[in-house]
Amino acid sequence: MQEWFCLSGNMRLAGKALSGPTAGLRRAVRTCLIALPLGLVLVAANAVAATDEGRRVALVIGNQDYQFVEPLVNPLNDTKEIARVLREADFEVTLGINLDKKELEEVVRRFLRELDDGDTALFYYSGHALQVGDSNFILPVDAKLASQYDLEFESLKVSHLLDYMKAASSLQIVMLDSCRDNPFEIASLFWGEEEYSLGKTRGLRRIPNKLGSFISYATRPGQVAYDGDGPMSPFTSSVVGNALDPALEIKDLMTKVREEVVRKTGGQQIPYEDSTLVTNFYFVPPKPKPIVVAHHRVSVPATGEAVALNIPEPVQPEGGSVEARLTLTPGKGELRLPGGRTVAEGDVLQASELASLEFVPTGAGAGDVELIGYEAQDQWGGTVSAIASITVAQADAPAEEDAKTEDQDQRLEALLAWLREKSVAGAVEADIGVGPVPVYPDVPAEGVAATSNWLKVVSADSDLQLSSEGRLLQAGDRFPVSALASLTVRPQIGSEREAGQFELELPGEAGAAGTITQIVQPRVTQCDQLATQPFDLQAVTEGRLANDLDPQAVEKACAEANAAYPEIGRFVFQRGRGAFAAGDLEQASAYFEQAYQMGHVRAGQVLGRMYYLGAGIDRDREKAVELYRKAAERGDPYALHSLGMAEIRGEGTPQNEKAGLEKLLQSVEAGHTFSYNAIGGFYLGGEHVGENVDRAVYYFNRSAARDDIYGYLNVGTLYRDGKGVPQDYEAALGWFKKAHEGGHPAAGTAIGLLYYNGQGVEKDPEEATRWFRESAQRGDAWGAFNTAFMLGQKSGEAAGRDRIRMLAMAVAVDPSSPAAEQGRDALGKADRRLKGKVLQQALTDLGYEPGPIDGQPGRKTREALSEFFETTGHKPVEGDEAMIALVKHQWELDRPRYDLF
Fold first, then answer.
1. pTM
2. Distances (CA, A) of 311 to 292, 395, 414, 461
């Protein structure tokens, strides 16, 4: 009898199954005119529009302190300096130092979460890497590579990361300073079914480069790079020393780097690059031109005395120095600097000197208008022209202007006083992953002129992205006081652990007394804390497994987040997770569809899973695969697993075992335990791959070590069957119970088998049946079939009807499983009258009117069945299939945890 009682593909791990869009910010001002009081206009001629380009996002990893091979010398210094340079070049930097494998997975996910279509994505790595076959793998600090099977669990394939970057950005840059001898002693390693001999591998291989990418290596493929004698490697020190030269396009930069490294190493190391770029890239972004008051108007009395003109000082908003060359001077009167020095047309003044100019109206009388023309030029060569007009009036004429100036001064002082109070009142809270968050939305800036009153960014923590009016701000940058209401902060993903801060210098004040420090507390919304799904590349935190969700709490928190940020699909998706966990399939699918249409990648994968399972909707496996594929292209581990399984089995897509296994390996690489268990199951049974019990044990133990309920079940099954480990029924029962407590659908079936066979426990058919039925209710097809088998040992109509219902359940929950196949066969041989009664009883229980429950379906039964299909929207079927559809619908009304499959 044992052959009837088996788990559905015993080792199977059932294949379970953007923050919102933000404007691209650039360090440049918009091309626009800002309306000012007193007829003044600020001009930033030919400025770069803020949304012309996407953001710049970088992943910088330095692994130095290796645990099982000789540590390296320079990676930490290399990464520190590269990160500094990239931040100066306007990159948002995700930094990883001395990462073990799980930390490496998390940092890569955090980086991919930062990417949006249109961005520039850069990956820099310094540390140990290895070429295996035709691929390069970077290695975390806890890599042992002690077993031939370790590579899949202890590395990151560089080409995979490049593919994910390409799917989510418009331009990709990869910089690898990791070309060293293989430090591991192992002779060969497996990647999937292929075993690769390592021999004396040196350096890295050339990565196949697709259009739009720039890949640079510290040295030529197959050669070794050197750490060097200094604090940085020769390659990285040259990159750091030259990257911020605004004249160097990236290809020219690498030419200069190559020349320097060859010289430093006596020709032993020759950096190499591979470019498929179709556009130029400069690490130093284009600078905005100086900002001036295009036409400054001033009235002076005809007294013959020197009068300060108060021309607003030209400002380079990114902190560079500015000079002003006089292109036109007054025909009547003369211009002086404080101290009496006269200036003339063609003279070049510092910006502060222009602002201090005085006018002596010699020869000018009331009513005369004199002009001053000047051209402001910054240190990067940006120029802009402006004028000042001087109206000579009666001695008391300037009184009105003085009153206006006094009013402006009062408004400015009131605003600055408010700003000081606000900065000491407490932290500004900023949600992560919702785009730029206003820092001072209620600032009293109305009526404050945007003239020469500028705030300067003294410092800002690297985890806080500051911007004003669409311009990214860094230390040394300035922005007008009048734009304070537009000041925003965008906290980086992962920065919620501690508060950050930025410091502003106030206009007209010097020293510490003239600055304010604002604390910013990044936070993760309650919706994100409760409902993020693991490995979601558009999430802002690591997430919870389905069995850890509290549906009611999720609905409350995510409804609030959805109301606060209606444009962000992430909150809609996570709200759908709560509905899915609650068993509200109709609402869940609606949320997932909405989130998918809003651009949330994982929502497509979960929606695809619903189509695959037929969870609340008719099964459509081709539609499921279409949704999986789109998410897999972005590197979504769940989608890679689902698509890989579909390709291996040929479900919804032509069968391609090799391509499917590669996708599962990508999912394994990301730490997704579903694929650990799937591949382990294949090796255990020799299905799709060569049988290898030791490798199966290896995969299952890796999964259990990550607290996965499917890993628990599979390790328990190994102990039960004595495969790859000593047979131990007590250990098996312990693992099965851990899996059951976590919500595993099939764990009850496994426990029931032990009670049925008396393995490690006293034989007890009733207890076995109880466990089988519990798994059946959770959606395990073998649990349902085994329950039917046990009921078949009993007599009486009630047991017979219950048996038929459980056979129908075995087919309903997983129609492609071996259990379903046997269930269909048994249903075909079952008593027709009892089947008719089960169908009529189900219609009655669902509120339809099939007539008497007599096992003789007639007109009323057919009408009730037709009404059921019309009401529920399910495809009409007949015979046993109709009964199966009714049983499935009843089961779904009990809200099973489909999200655990």
1. 0.80
2. 9, 20, 23, 34
